[in-house]
Structure to design on (531 residues):
């Protein structure tokens, strides 16, 4: 009887996660604790970083079998066997379907559209140029990624971090990256959201470095009032123009503008509230936990992840710098009417990037209120990064 | 890693990417600018039309000049100020609660332009808008 008891205990031990635990699992679990700490204690993008970190924890607990990377291996024609995913998958595999099929990022954009006021951009359409200039971070990082030996798919996924837009980064990386790549959408998401949380630390030194005190003190003219009709026409016009020019950007831009049309039309209040609250919250949970699940040990404990972290901060910094430099150019062209600080808001981290423009401007002159002026490039950056994402997807064969 | 890129491909991605993004957003600038011009001219046209109508009407109202002078007043009254009233009432209520006795607004004066951080409302607005996430 004692022998049976010992055998049972031995079997239980052998089938438990403790027996299967490797040092890589332990490291990953500790990293997930670190991200949870950053999200809870320091409020680093907690809405997404917390579910991502918890997804990371779940996927690295051996024996749990909630996510199976082997089910997402593509066949020779580049297709995933979705039948196998449904038959043999775990909970996180099912949730990850929404990422792989590009559903979640587009629905998040719907909610963002419902919450975004494009009036500062409509009032000052030149802001679009700053939103475009800040996307230079994406394309210049592509060069850096190529120099470090990444292939086209990986370089495209890494460079989109420079867009400073989480859903866009997940959208592009889940579409470009496959099982042959050394990085996963989870690693891209982790880097993107970490850097977005670090916007208040990364941007101000670059903004101060590239501008003079005189430039930072420039006060901009008050924006004109935008009529309701203009606000209603804007999302329709943007959808038509962008979808015709860059069709691969249509899922993101189209949903963003649909959400905005919900908001501005004022006739579908219920839909607007649902899209920006309940729907967005549900999708955020699914997106975060399933993207976190892709961060298996092999994808994080590697030199390539370290390179992604380095390239991510370069992408962010270059985006900020190119926005400010283009702002300086606009300042010269307009005879000093544009404060170059609003250029840094062209990276699409809304509204943190615009707040940095306001903050750095107020350091020089406390009576200078740049926030609304910076919101123009900031929301232009959202459209710009979605367009850049579409461009990457159409240029890079995947 | 497979599929190493040659530099001409990298250059093509970077240049075409930047050019397409700029072209797309410049098209949007043109569209928004045209839309803004149309609506601004329509608005100006309406205002001018309104002014002309008032000018035309003024000589006709010779019998009751007093009524013409007092005409703008009801327009102001028609505006929906309920939100502003609610905010002011809430502020007064909060202040009343703080000092323990009922307060009422007896006069409103225009303040000097804000030049320093001394204005409490400006400080509050600035702090709110620049607060870290």
């Amino acid at each position: 009887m004692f022998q049976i008891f010992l055998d049972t205990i031995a079997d239980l031990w052998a089938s438990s996660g403790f027996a299967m635990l490797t040092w890589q699992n332990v490291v990953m679990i500790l990293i997930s604790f670190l991200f949870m700490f950053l999200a809870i204690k320091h409020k680093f993008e907690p809405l997404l970083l917390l579910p991502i970190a918890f997804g990371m924890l779940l996927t690295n607990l051996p024996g749990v079998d909630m996510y199976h990377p082997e089910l997402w291996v593509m066949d020779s024609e580049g297709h995933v066997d979705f039948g196998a995913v449904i038959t043999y998958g775990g909970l996180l595999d099912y949730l990850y379907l929404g990422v792989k099929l590009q559903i979640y990022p587009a629905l998040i954009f719907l909610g963002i559209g419902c919450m975004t006021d494009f009036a500062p951009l409509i009032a000052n359409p030149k802001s679009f140029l700053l939103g475009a200039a800040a996307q230079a971070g994406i394309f210049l990082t592509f060069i850096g990624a190529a120099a470090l030996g990444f292939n086209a798919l990986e370089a495209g996924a890494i460079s989109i971090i420079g867009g400073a837009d989480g859903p866009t980064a997940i959208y592009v990386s889940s579409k470009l990256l496959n099982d042959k790549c050394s990085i996963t959408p989870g690693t891209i998401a982790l880097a993107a959201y970490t850097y977005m949380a670090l916007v208040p630390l990364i941007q101000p030194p670059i903004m101060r470095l590239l501008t003079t005190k005189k430039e930072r003190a420039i006060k901009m003219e008050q924006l004109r009032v935008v009529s309701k009709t203009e606000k209603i026409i804007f999302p329709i016009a943007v959808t038509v123009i962008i979808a015709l020019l860059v069709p691969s950007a249509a899922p993101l831009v189209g949903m963003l503008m649909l959400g905005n049309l919900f908001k501005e039309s004022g006739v579908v209040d219920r839909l607007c509230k649902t899209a920006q609250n309940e729907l967005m919250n549900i999708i955020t949970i699914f997106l975060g936990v399933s993207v976190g699940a892709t961060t298996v040990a092999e994808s994080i404990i590697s030199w390539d992840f370290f390179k992604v972290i380095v390239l991510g901060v370069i992408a962010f910094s270059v985006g900020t710098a190119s926005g400010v430099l283009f702002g300086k150019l606009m300042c010269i062209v307009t005879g000093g009417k544009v404060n170059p600080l609003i250029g840094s808001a062209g990276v699409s981290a809304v509204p943190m990037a615009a707040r940095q423009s306001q903050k750095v401007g107020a350091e020089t002159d406390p009576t200078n209120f740049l926030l609304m002026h910076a919101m123009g490039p900031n929301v232009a950056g959202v459209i710009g990064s979605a367009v850049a994402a579409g461009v990457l997807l159409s240029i890079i064969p995947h | 890693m497979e599929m190493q890129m040659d530099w001409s491909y990298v250059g093509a991605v970077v240049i075409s990417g930047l050019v397409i993004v700029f072209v797309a957003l410049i098209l949007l600038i043109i569209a928004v600018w045209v839309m803004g011009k149309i609506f601004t001219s329509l608005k100006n046209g309406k205002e001018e039309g309104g002014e002309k109508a008032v000018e035309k009407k003024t000589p006709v109202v010779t019998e009751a000049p007093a009524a013409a002078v007092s005409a703008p007043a009801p327009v102001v009254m028609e505006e929906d100020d309920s939100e502003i009233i609610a905010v002011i009432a809430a502020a007064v209520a909060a202040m009343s609660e703080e000092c323990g006795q009922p307060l009422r607004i007896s006069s409103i004066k225009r303040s000097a332009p804000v030049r320093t951080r001394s204005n409490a409302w400006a400080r509050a607005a600035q702090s709110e808008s620049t607060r870290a996430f």
Remarks:
- The first helix of chain B runs from residue 7 to 60.
- Chain B touches chain A at residues 1-5, 7, 9-10, 12-14, 16-18, 20-29, 31-33, 35-36, 39-40, 43, 114-117, 122, 126, 129-133 (CB under 8 Å).
- Confidence is low (pLDDT under 50) at residues 60-77 of chain B.
- DSSP finds five helices and no strands in chain B.
